[in-house]
């Protein structure tokens, strides 16, 4: 370059360039979303499914084919007896279509399930199934997905396409994370993730679950309340029990519709004053052993049932030993939790729920409740 030659260098505001690119990226994502919706609404997937079904039927013998047809027809016409008790809160009996699977003999979902996309409820529990099927996104009419006490290690991103989903229960499985796509299920009203042991956070995208009424993340490894939970404005029940919480955020009063709050079995030493600002709050359950600072308006408010659960002395003395044993077995637990351990955890949770339900009808509650373990040798 010759000396003395002038070079014009364009100068521009970096924020303007960034703004232009953000607009382009937004338009590109919007175009991708429209294209994905067009593909999903297309008849091609249904046509492909029908052809796959015909190919599968061709591979069957006459007897097996008759059994399959009989199974599908029966699923369309029959209703399950166990669902009759929930007739008041579910759809009319004629439109209830439920798939049930139970027992350790099941290692995978039956192949015939992929043709039953008309189903509205799945109830799968106590199996050795470790993952959900690839065709899950085809079940667009699914409103209830109950899959507790299996060995499921992850939820696929396709679960976000189940936009009609209202209840999701993945308790006592092997989850270590939740896909952000679950936030697309904006009609979800009940989410249960109890007892996955390695679950320690929830994606921020779940903040879009504005209709969620019931969130249960008990018996996990949460050290703080997920940010998304504080943005679920319709939440009425929040179960954070049996985690590793050291404190609570000062903006919990954002949950303006909260009625029931479970905090027992954590490392809390105080409760924030912001809880007194939640006018809808009717019940708080805490562990009374370590709490040393509680707002008077909480524990003395006649409108709030403030329940303290205390361990007995024998339990307190053995607490350290149990924690050491849990740390040693943590790796094995992650790989394959023992069946008796799952039963023990779920049994204790069921007992606490029954006890608390019995207190709802009382005018007053005990100052504290001590859990006593009794074993009988027959």
Walk me through the structure.
By secondary structure, the chain is of the alpha/beta class. It contains 8 helices and 11 strands. The chain has helices at residues 14-41, 44-58, 62-77, 296-299, 313-317, 319-328, 330-335, 339-360, and strands at 98-102, 121-125, 144-146, 167-169, 190-192, 214-216, 237-239, 260-262, 283-287, 305-311, 369-371. An 11-stranded parallel sheet has the order 1-2-3-4-5-6-7-8-9-10-11. Strand 9, helix 4 (296-299) and strand 10 form a beta-alpha-beta unit.
Quick overview of this protein structure:
It contains 8 helices and 11 strands.
Give the integer mean of the pLDDT values. 78
Q: Give the number of helices.
A: 8
Beta-sheet strand percentage? 5-15%
Our measurement of the CA-to-CA distance between the termini, rounded to an integer number of angstroms, reads 99 Å
The topology string of helices and strands comes to HHHEEEEEEEEEHEHHHHE
Give me the count of strands: 11
Overall shape: it is: flat
Output the structural class: alpha/beta
Fraction of residues in helix? 25-40%
Major sheet attributes: 11 strands, parallel
Whole-angstrom Rg: 26 Å
- Strand arrangement across the biggest beta sheet: 1-2-3-4-5-6-7-8-9-10-11
Low-confidence region ranges: 74-95, 333-338, 372-378
Descriptors for this entry?
8 helices; eleven-stranded parallel sheet; 11 strands; 378 residues; disordered C terminus; alpha/beta
Can you lay out the helices and strands and say which pair or pack?
Layout (H helix, E strand, L loop, with lengths): L13 H28 L2 H15 L3 H16 L20 E5 L18 E5 L18 E3 L20 E3 L20 E3 L21 E3 L20 E3 L20 E3 L20 E5 L8 H4 L5 E7 L1 H5 L1 H10 L1 H6 L3 H22 L8 E3 L7
Parallel strand pairs: 1-2, 2-3, 3-4, 4-5, 5-6, 6-7, 7-8, 8-9, 9-10, 10-11
